[in-house]
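Standup notes
- HV: blocked on the assembly model, inputs below
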Amino acid sequence: MPFSAEELARRLDLGLHGDPATTVSGVATLAQATPASLGFLANPRYRGQLAHTRAGIVVLRAADAEGYPGTALIAADPYVAFARAAALFETRPAPAPGLHPSAVVDASARVHPDAQVGAFVSIGARSVVGAGAVLGPGCAIGEDCVVGAQCELVARVTLVRRVRLGRRVLIHPGAVLGADGFGLAMDAGRWLKVPQLGGVVVGDDCEIGANTTIDRGAIEDTVLEEDVRLDNQIQIGHNVRIGAHTAMAGCAAVAGSATIGRYCLIGGGAGVLGHLELCDRVVVTAMSLVTHSIREPGEYSSGTPLMDNRRWRRSAARFKQLDALARRLGALRDN
Amino acid sequence: MPFSAEELARRLDLGLHGDPATTVSGVATLAQATPASLGFLANPRYRGQLAHTRAGIVVLRAADAEGYPGTALIAADPYVAFARAAALFETRPAPAPGLHPSAVVDASARVHPDAQVGAFVSIGARSVVGAGAVLGPGCAIGEDCVVGAQCELVARVTLVRRVRLGRRVLIHPGAVLGADGFGLAMDAGRWLKVPQLGGVVVGDDCEIGANTTIDRGAIEDTVLEEDVRLDNQIQIGHNVRIGAHTAMAGCAAVAGSATIGRYCLIGGGAGVLGHLELCDRVVVTAMSLVTHSIREPGEYSSGTPLMDNRRWRRSAARFKQLDALARRLGALRDN
Amino acid sequence: MPFSAEELARRLDLGLHGDPATTVSGVATLAQATPASLGFLANPRYRGQLAHTRAGIVVLRAADAEGYPGTALIAADPYVAFARAAALFETRPAPAPGLHPSAVVDASARVHPDAQVGAFVSIGARSVVGAGAVLGPGCAIGEDCVVGAQCELVARVTLVRRVRLGRRVLIHPGAVLGADGFGLAMDAGRWLKVPQLGGVVVGDDCEIGANTTIDRGAIEDTVLEEDVRLDNQIQIGHNVRIGAHTAMAGCAAVAGSATIGRYCLIGGGAGVLGHLELCDRVVVTAMSLVTHSIREPGEYSSGTPLMDNRRWRRSAARFKQLDALARRLGALRDN
């Protein structure tokens, strides 16, 4: 499935410099590209590679195209243009609608005839699977769940109960949605489990990473609005609410009843304590801990810089004395 | 299944203010309640909602009930009372004892006839499943495991080998107990794997969250005493021992051979290094790292506060200079 | 399967002190050993236990053997020697080559007749399983995967697609290799998914922990060189490259396109940001965040020490003022 520069420019609505007949049959990084590759330059970190790339066609900004002698597609956002181009070269397993003979479907469940239900899938009472949905091998769908049209649960995804997915939700293997929230009350020296009566609601076009967990609500639902994107191994506590278009990188965690706004970016390994509220367009850098609500858009951080361990030990020891040091400094000034 | 205030008061042994005939058919937060809802006020953060709630009945402390005009159930601990009340409204799938036809059970395993073994469950050699235990779809039980009476493995739980669960242990989907501990020795420039010959022992009434991992011991067993409560995505290394009634929030991790006392609370994302000992009643706040043994009950923390990124960068840069700053301060004082 | 001291010394090429006829039938810690146990002393932390151990035979260094009255095996590296000895006592389920009747194998896949394919395993189009490989219950192998000779996928492992394992790779339950990398471009206020066209390549003798996730590359492959050892719940982003013999402890995470050298040790919960390069023999301590490339071997850290929460609060408050404090100190000096 080769494409010419001319065809790519037309399909993707991009400017074209150079030879419109140049043809490529796959994508590559600038460093690894061959004359049969489509490459791209989006991250300025890699600009130096442009001089040496063998890529047949390069997607780049107009400014970067100046002086570039090869065939180029000009894009206002080369990463977006590249994403669209790469989709042309993507191969995916052919759809195979219908139930695999090994699947176990409760008599009260409803599966659309266009849906694809793979090997070793179980579907519980009163659950519904929509048109064009794909449940890959080993998925376990419990009671009272809804899998919307065109959803894809890649493999071994669990929806425990009362999980309702919108349309085109993509969930990667090992993710668990709708497990009990972590609700405990201490009662006469022993833990008493608090029933978790809510569900999970996931909006259209969300993506949920491998081994990510999203607990169901204690009373009301845990909610992801549309187009929320969660990477792998993220933990979302019960009754959390995440606004539309927010993205969270791997291993981030949000404790129970926190509310995250729209268009937020939560860095890898970052944490948000329970019951907090983050407004729209908050950026939290990797491995930071959010300990109070945030009312102003902006970028927030905690932690200390990486240091050689020996130097770090000295700074860390001084951190313990920080209040005393500050008081001594104050006393000196007052003298 | 509606309940009157009078019946709830009697069943839960609570005081009653207002109309004993008020009837509710479900639970709700104060903010979302309708006249058919039972609400509760435990967290003072939500006290302001009491004035506007439409809840038919509210569970609260005597002090909060003063001046409240509606029907109220009076509890010394409203959260505990609410947990018990909510259990009355909880619906769970009906038990279905017996083996699903797809289950694969080794000839040497013993499964109690009252136990429920779901679709696509495998049970290995010499393993035993007790009365009333539930193994949900996709669970994989290896060799020499014991699943005690009334345990519930919700779905897709793995017990690798030599895992012995007490009674009423609840394990959420994706959890893996009894995988090899991470034991390696460097031998002539290559890693040599150290055999992991121990098992995992889990006491009665423990709860283990989704995608949590508990490795089996290298020589002796990894042990959770009774009533330990682990949230999702927790990592417990080999030969760890966790005391009774300790609770750990999501994404916490305990490295090999550490010993945690009873009634400890380990915050989300917190870490405990290997071979350390924590006494009883230690609280570790979220994302703190425990780097030395703790001999005194109390609350412990590490890390820095969340800041606007620009201000944080300045503090972080100064952290690197902290030892030099302290020395300069000392020199000034000595002048 | 008892072994005499003489036989152990011969098999493991170790020195022998004491009675060559002493016989042991299992391994134990020094504290728990009986006369039928083989114990070992490698960690100096446990040297005090030597005086009281009841172990029939102890593996230790020559220096520690001086004055020890019992039977001892002398090793330059007692931990390595113990690992080899323990392997003699390890029992493993007997291999059972062939396909379990419940397994679902695509017609275009090739499974070596010596391989063992367990219950509820699915194998997708064009995938290949080598001689002596073991796929435990519930593994899901997608399209275009290679499982090399003698690999073991313990249970419920997912290889999504284009994952190529070398020989003798050991993967623990719940691990997910080859899921989509987290590639997104913001396009007119919505996320656009970037196709993930690469695969995952894992070298010989790698070990991958329970619930660990390794995404496939966006364009090129994500690569683990030989003998890489990953503990549980580790997250490896797309296009990461990890050098031979590097080991990472539980819950560590490496963001996309980072390159880690050979013989590195990454501590538990540590993070490496995307696109960074770490040279060979870098040690990162637990829960540190690597925010810049590292060109010098050595040990690196970030974070602050664990403190009593009340004292920590005071230091943390001063951390926010650190730049102002440093400026004041500078002003005082200039006076």
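- HV (later): unblocked. Helices of chain B lie at 5-12, 62-65, 78-89, 309-320, 322-334. The longest strand of chain B covers residues 37-40.
- Next: hand off to the docking folks.
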